[in-house]
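Training component of the fellowship. As part of building independent skills, the fellow (R.M.) carried out the full modelling exercise for a liganded target. The chosen ligand was magnesium ion. The inputs are recorded below so that the supervisory panel can assess the work.
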Amino acid sequence: MTVEHAIRVEGVEKEFGSGSSAAIALRGATLTVPFGGITMLVGPSGCGKTTLLSIIAGLLRPTRGAVRLLGRDLLAMSDRAQVDFRRRSMGFIFQQYNLLPSLSAAENASVGLLAAGVPRRAAVGRAAALLSDLGLGQKLDSLPRTLSGGQQQRVAVARALAHDPSVVLCDEPTAALDGASGRAVMEMMAAIAVRPDRAVLIVTHDSRIFDFAHQIVQMEDGLITAVEQRANPATPTPAQAA
Ligand SMILES: Nc1ncnc2c1ncn2[C@@H]1O[C@H](COP(=O)(O)OP(=O)(O)O)[C@@H](O)[C@H]1O
Ligand SMILES: [Mg+2]
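Fellow's submitted model of the complex:
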């Protein structure tokens, strides 16, 4: 079976609470995320971006609507199948790097592999190789508190990519970073995104990184209101891609 889209969200509604205290976060959002690039989901605070991302991640159930990931019906999967699917096929990067303070950079980057049952030596080795690719070869044994924000986020990027996921979901990955660090993280995201079997979805309101998008999806008040295709997104500089 060929899978046409990485992510397909159709008519997704989400209501928190009920009755007079109900908050409607999504009002029928429909969205397609293609393979082979970066889709950015943008819109004002409170419009429903994180709610939609959480639903795609399987961390929140929609009130109504359908979600297909890599061609599979997410809502039809059992909880156990969802957990398994997440571990194998999805990677997550958040604004807060969520690194474990007592683990080294290489150990932090390998936690997903360890959770998936990869033996420790192989997991840390794979994580170390990725960190070296990301320019952190000298920091493998460093604890998170000794790293800059940009370096910590690169460890989080390595952790998200270590198991070679097809779908990478990011919520405000550059919001806590200065311009240069945010750009360095995005150069890496651009380098890993362009693969026919991978898609990267980034929630952001950081306009400094919009030029890395292949597609920009605008959200307002619980609805997708515009989709813009970009012909020539920024590509990594040769030094970054090497
Ligand atoms: N757990 C929750 N309980 C109640 N309301 C929520 C919850 N999560 C989000 N909301 C509401 O849903 C709307 C969308 O929130 P969110 O998805 O976090 O927006 P964004 O990420 O775009 O800032 C907001 O009005 C928010 O207050
Ligand atoms: Mg949010």
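The panel noted the following from the submitted structure. The two ends are 34 Å apart (CA to CA). Residues 49-50 surround magnesium ion (ligand 2) (CB under 6 Å).
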